[in-house]
C-alpha cells in the first residue's frame, strides 16, 4: 500500500516511522536466529563476537566446534582419520548417536501420524460424519494441552500400560513402555497428529466431490478413485502435514525427558543437557545445522502450499 | 410430502425414505470407520494417560500399600489403624485401641521396611513427619502397653490430632488433599479448610505469576504482531511472501535453537550487553542481567510465540478490502478515526484467535522458562516437573497439572466457540 500522491507531510512521516517500526520487529524475529550462525565459527570458547571476528580476521574464525561435534564422545578422537576413525564416529560420537535416534523416532512417528491422520481427515471432511466437532476437538487436543501435562500422563501410563486390563480381569503386566523406542514413537505420533489433520482437512476444504463421482461414473472402483483422483489432489497437504509432524517430533524434548531413558536420547534432549550443564559453542554449531534444516523444510512447505493452491484452482493469497 | 398418494419407492421396491436412511447410515458408518483407528489411537496414547494422571491426583495409596519395585508384589500396610478409622467416625478421639492398632502397624512396617514410604505420604500433608515414622518404626519392637503413653514417649507428635487427621485421610487412598496442597490450603484439627502458613504459600502465587506473565507475553505479542501483520497484508503478494519468510523461519526453527540464541544474546557477557557497552549506553561494570530472570522468560517466549500471533492476524487482515478505509477517509474521517472505527473492528476475529492461541501456549510453557527463567521466571509447569522428577510427590504434581489442564481446556473450549478449531491455520 504505497501512499497516494496527495499524502500530507505528516502522513509521509508517519508512514516512514511505521516502516521503521516494522523493520525493527522483523529484526527482532530474525536476528536471534541469524546471530548464532557466525558465532558458531568462533575460534574462542565465547558466545560473543571477539575483536578478531569483528575485524574479519580469518584467525578469529574456525571450524573447531563443528569438528568437536564429530569427536565428542568417541573412543579415539586423536587417531588418524581413516576409515576406522569414521567408523568410531558413526558408532560412538554422541551427536551422531542422538541424530540417529531423532531420525528413527521422527520417521516412525511421522509415518504413524500421517497414515492415521490422513484417513481420519478424509472421514472428518465428509459432511455426514457424526459427532464431528467433538471428535475433532479430541484429535486436535494434543496440540493444545501443555506438553508437561501430556508428559506427566504418559509417565504414569508408560510405567504399566496394561494396568487397566487388570480391572477387567485380563493379565495386567505386559512390561513397560517407559524407556523404549516404541513409547517415544507413540507419544510423538500423537503430538504430530493434529498437524496432519489440520493440513489435510485444509486441502480438502473446497474439494470438489463431483470429481470422485465422475471417476465412479467412468467406472473406477473406490480404490482406483482414491489413488488416482483423491490422493494426487490432497498430496501437498499430506506431505506438509508429514513435515509438520516430523518437525514436531524432531524438536520435542519434554516427553523425551519424562519417558525416555539414555538409549533414546534425541538431538533436542542432548541440547537440553548441553545448555544446562556445560554450554559451549558446540551447541551453536548444532543450532546452525538445525537452522539450515529448518530453512530446507520451510522452503519445501512453501512450494507445496503453492502447488496445492494451483491444483485446487485457488488464487494464491 | 405426507399426503403423497402412493409411497415413493426405489427401483427394487424399497420405500424411498428407508432406502435413503439406509444409505445415509452407511455413509455415516464409512466416515466413522475412517476416523475410528486414529480416534482409538489418540484415546490410548493421550486420553487414557491423562485420565491416569487425574486419577493419580486423587488417589495415593502410599499409606496403605507398598509395592516391591523388583517383584511388583503389593503388601497391604497399616491395616489395623485403617480398620479403626473405619469403625470410628471422623472426630472420634483416638483411644487406647487406636494406639494399639497403630503400634501393631508400626511393628509390621518394621518387618516390611515400608516405614519411609508411609511416612512420606503423611509428610505430604504435614511437612516434617517423615522422620516421625522412620524413627518410631526403627524402635517399634520396644513399644509396650499402654501404647498411648509409649508412643507419646517415643515422639510427642503421635498425640497431635493433625497427624491423626492426616492418617485418617490417607487411610482410604482416595483424597482431595493434594488439590488443597496445590492451592496452598490445608486442614486444621477439626478438618476445616484453612490457608497454609504465609511462608510456605507458593502455588497460588505461581499460578498467578503464570497467568500474569502469559497475559503480558500475549499483550506484547499483539503489539508487535499487529503492525507487521498489517504490513504483510497490505503489501503486494510477491513482496509480502518474501517478508513472510522472516515470520515463518522462526516458526520452523527448533525451540531449543531459539532459546539458545536468546541465552547467547542476553547473557551478561552476551551480544546485547557487549553492543550496549560498545555504544556507550552502559559501562563495562553496568552490564544488565537480562538472563535467568523474568526478563529472559518474557523476551524469549515473546519471540517464540510471536509467529502464532502474526499468522492468524495476517489471515484475517489479508481479505479486508482497502476500499473501506478509503471510503471512511473520503467521508471525512481522520486516518486515526478510520483506523479505529473501520479497520480495527474488522481485525478483531484475528486478534481474538491469535491472543487466545498465544495465551494457551504460554501458560503451559516449560522448556524456555526452565532454561532462561532462573528463579523468578519459573512458571507452574516447572513446578510440576520439579515434583515429578525431584521431590517425587507425584500426586501433587498431578493435582497441579490437573488444575492447569482444567484452565487450558476452558480456554480451548472458548477458542473453539470463538474461532473454531477448523479455522486453525498453519503457515
Structural summary, described in words:
- The complex is a heterodimer of chains A (317) and B (427).
- Chain A is mainly alpha-helical and 317 residues long.
- Chain A is 71% helix and 0% strand.
- Chain A starts with 8 loop residues before the first helix and ends in a 6-residue tail after the last helix.
- Chain B is mostly helical and 427 residues long.
- Chain B is 67% helix and 3% strand.
- Chain B has helices at 16-58, 79-87, 96-112, 115-125, 130-138, 147-154, 161-170, 177-182, 203-234, 237-252, 255-266, 271-279, 294-317, 323-330, 335-363, 367-372, 380-389, 394-418; strands spanning 65-67, 74-76, 185-187, 193-195.
- Chain B has a two-stranded antiparallel sheet with strand order 1-2. A two-stranded antiparallel sheet of chain B has the order 3-4.
- In chain B, a hairpin with a 5-residue loop joins strand 3 and strand 4.
- The longest helix of chain B is centred in the N-terminal third of the chain and has 43 residues, at 16-58.
- The two termini of chain B are 49 Å apart.
- The model of chain B has no long low-confidence stretch (mean pLDDT 87).
- The chains are: A mainly alpha (317), B mainly alpha (427).
- Chains A and B meet through helix 1, helix 5, helix 6, helix 7 and helix 9 of A and helix 1, helix 9, helix 10, helix 11 and helix 13 of B.
Strand content of chain A: under 5%
Parts with pLDDT < 50 across at least 5 consecutive residues of chain B:
none
Distance between the termini of chain A: 16 Å
Strand arrangement across the biggest beta sheet of chain B: 1-2
What shape does the CA trace of chain A take?
globular
Largest interface: A-B, 97 and 94 residues
Helix % of chain A is over 70%
Distance between the termini of chain B: 49 Å
| Relevant CATH superfamily of the domain at 99-311 in chain A | MetI-like
The low-pLDDT segments of chain A are: none
Arithmetic mean of pLDDT of chain A = 87
Number of strands of chain B: 4
Main sheet record of chain A: none
Q: What oligomeric assembly is this protein in?
A: heterodimer
At the fold tier of CATH, the topology name of the domain at 99-311 in chain A is: MetI-like fold
Q: What is the CATH class of the domain at 99-311 in chain A?
A: Mainly Alpha
The H-and-E topology of chain B, N to C, reads as HEEHHHHHHHEEHHHHHHHHHH
The ordered string of helix (H) and strand (E) elements of chain A is: HHHHHHHHHHHHHH
Shape of chain B: extended
Kindly report the average pLDDT value of chain B. 87
